[in-house]
Amino acid sequence: MDDQAGKGLAGPRAVIIGRPIKHARSPLIHGYWLAENQIAGSYDRREVMPGAVAATLRDLRDEGYLGGNVTVPHKEEAFAACDHLTERARIAGAVNTFWFDGPDLCGDNTDGIGFVGHLSETWPDWDRNPAEIRLMGAGGAARGLIAPLLDRNVKTISVTNRSRDRAESLCSDLKTVFPDAKLSVLDWKDRGLGLGTVDLLVNTTSLGMAGQPSLDLDLTPMKATAIVADIVYIPLETPLLAEAGRMRLRRLDGLGMLLHQAVPGFERWFGVRPRVTAELRQEVFADLLGQG
Ligand SMILES: NC(=O)c1ccc[n+]([C@@H]2O[C@H](COP(=O)([O-])OP(=O)(O)OC[C@H]3O[C@@H](n4cnc5c(N)ncnc54)[C@H](OP(=O)(O)O)[C@@H]3O)[C@@H](O)[C@H]2O)c1
């Protein structure tokens, strides 16, 4: 169902498209920032059928929207519809943030900078020494994450995915953009090998999400200084993060990424760089608890 709220307001308007769209948290996040910054704009939601994304984006432009976000399952369709893409969106093969430049549709992928933004805010020195990273998964989210990670002080990234070909294609695509990057692929059955030298382990699979099996991985070999991150945010404490907690490893949950990925879009549409605060985090956390 479309959310018409705010359409009558004279002010800047943004929107999120997806299907289903009812439980998207972006309207809560952007609505919070609009109120906090006293901007008389709106951030709406619109349910869009697969196959209708390009036409909907043109309609949104004609209706006066400045831009918006794209969520599951439309990120690839939005990517294909864009006239201009950022390099990280091109690498990701997916667009989660769009805006209009005159008649042109422009697309970005802010998932990775959201993740790295949260990580760097939590531990500013995480990459003071060249970091070794183990990426679990090679799906859409992993594609979004990997380029912003390679922009940092990273020594090597090993990628492991249930379907090995997906990890291989991700690494070979990246090699063309980051020819000096040290990327390797591990078989999924070997996902626990070599964990003793890993500085940052990131779960980008859907394992551990409510209703999904947990990620079966023995963290015992990990260094005491290692960081374990999970981008799943329902539940906020996944079995992987619970295990990392028992081992007293540093932990990063998926909610911070969700909040930080929203920052560039808000700044672009509404002209103010918003803050990710403990109060905002609490609001979204309470909403997640309420709706699951
Ligand atoms: N925190 C945030 O802001 C944020 C942003 C985006 C996504 N996410 C979360 O990230 C997760 C992945 O999203 P996505 O968009 O990347 O999805 P996706 O493109 O469908 O990829 C799913 C990934 O999970 C793996 N996987 C699924 N079931 C598995 C199983 N039973 N055993 C082993 N691996 C399995 C897939 O491996 P195969 O390739 O072998 O299928 C693939 O690597 C979701 O839980 C999503 O909610 C969080």
Low-pLDDT residue spans: 1-8
Can you count the helices?
Answer: 11
What is the level-2 CATH architecture name of the largest domain? 3-Layer(aba) Sandwich
Side-by-side strand order of the widest sheet: 2-1-3-5-6-4
Overall number of structural domains? 2
Small molecules held by this entry: NADP nicotinamide-adenine-dinucleotide phosphate
SSE topology:
Elements: E1 13-18, H1 26-36, E2 42-47, H2 53-62, E3 67-70, H3 75-81, E4 84-85, H4 87-92, E5 97-101, E6 104-108, H5 111-122, E7 131-136, H6 140-150, E8 154-161, H7 164-177, E9 183-187, E10 200-203, E11 227-230, H8 239-246, E12 250-252, H9 254-260, H10 263-270, H11 278-291
Parallel strand pairs: 1-2, 1-3, 4-6, 7-8, 7-10, 8-9, 10-11, 11-12
Antiparallel strand pairs: 3-5, 5-6
The structure holds NADP nicotinamide-adenine-dinucleotide phosphate (NAP).
The site of NADP nicotinamide-adenine-dinucleotide phosphate has 24 residues, from helix 6 and helix 9.
Short overview:
With 292 residues, the chain is of the alpha/beta class. The chain contains 11 helices and 12 strands.
Report on the structure:
This protein has 292 residues and is an alpha/beta fold. It has two domains: 13-110 and 262-291, 3-Layer(aba) Sandwich (Rossmann fold), CATH 3.40.50.10860; 113-254, 3-Layer(aba) Sandwich (Rossmann fold), CATH 3.40.50.720. The chain has helices spanning 26-36, 53-62, 75-81, 87-92, 111-122, 140-150, 164-177, 239-246, 254-260, 263-270, 278-291; strands spanning 13-18, 42-47, 67-70, 84-85, 97-101, 104-108, 131-136, 154-161, 183-187, 200-203, 227-230, 250-252. The strands form two sheets. It has a six-stranded mixed β-sheet with strand order 2-1-3-5-6-4, sandwiched between helices. The radius of gyration is 19 Å and the shape is globular. The site of NADP nicotinamide-adenine-dinucleotide phosphate (NAP) has 24 residues, from helix 6 and helix 9. NADP nicotinamide-adenine-dinucleotide phosphate (NAP) binds next to helix 6 and helix 9.
